[in-house]
Amino acid sequence: MDPTPSQKRQKSRARRDHIKPEGYLRGFVPDKPDHEQKPLWACYISPPPIQTNRPTLKWIPQSPSEVSIQIGWYDYSPDSTPDETADQAFAKLKREVTPVRDAIRNERYRTWRHHLPFLLRYGHMLQVRSELYREDVGGSSPNMPHPKNYSITRMREELKKGPNEMWSSFQWTLRFCRDPSDPFITGDSAPVISGEVDDPNLILTDLRTRCLCPFGWDMALLGRVDPWPRDLGECEPSELDFYRRRVSEMARRYLVSPRDISDRLDVRIRRVDPLRERERN
């Protein structure tokens, strides 16, 4: 006898869900990894939800399938009947990120702006998939009978609306690098949004607000209100140091890199500085 729709839903529950998509994390794997089975390096800021024997504040080899995992992160409660699952909502963006990223690399980054609409949609997806977004939604509606169901539905609704005000109104530039030993990194905090105003209604219009969204070990979008002097630029080592520190300072669970960069980044520093005057034009 074929399984009923309810039985199918039950079978798909309690999976190892990726908060950051596995395809996104694969963008931080260099072309010729040192570890065939574990081509990434991860540093856990705090113990992860599973396999809590992993060391904290040390870089260890990992595969993309091992990072950013929460059991049942996208599961609705068993008695719910949503008209769409989170997997269905993410499917198109998840499917397209690798060919888009490969195209940007093959074009030597010069035609990146042709792909900007997709990059903005994908960056918005990373934002609404995050733990921070779920906490914000849950905190704004504490009396909802099923807060997790509500937050997943809100996430799907935000995806359908498309990029929010920040993604659609900011001015964007692409920064790239060439050496996987001196890379961009990512983490659970990415995309990183920073500013110097306390009022969330003003942060998107403040000239000091910045968004840093890494898309691979070799590329990241930078956004702000004012136009950038350069549409595209190669990062110098001092810039990459600054951007890595920015991602690290905002991380709460983990960081991901194509190499062990313990000689370049002190992950014990938890101070938060805004992206501002020290960034290069």
Describe what this molecule looks like in 3D.
This protein is 32% helix and 16% strand. It is globular and about 50 Å long. By secondary structure, it is of the alpha+beta class. The chain is built from eight helices and eleven strands. Residues 1-11 and 271-281 have low confidence and may be disordered. The strands form three sheets. A five-stranded mixed beta sheet has the order 7-8-9-5-10, covered by helices on one side. A four-stranded antiparallel beta sheet has the order 3-2-11-6, with helices on one face. A two-stranded antiparallel ribbon has the order 1-4. It has helices at residues 5-11, 22-25, 86-106, 116-129, 131-140, 147-161, 165-169, 237-250; strands at 16-18, 40-44, 59-62, 69-71, 171-176, 186-187, 192-194, 210-216, 219-224, 232-234, 254-257.
Unreliable segments of 5+ consecutive residues: 1-11, 271-281
Strand content: 15-25%
Structural class: alpha+beta
Helix content: 25-40%
Mean pLDDT: 84
User: What is the rounded distance between the termini?
Assistant: 64 Å
Number of helices: 8
Helix/strand order, N-terminal first: HEHEEEHHHHHEEEEEEHE
Strand arrangement, major sheet: 7-8-9-5-10
Q: The biggest beta sheet, please?
A: 5 strands, mixed
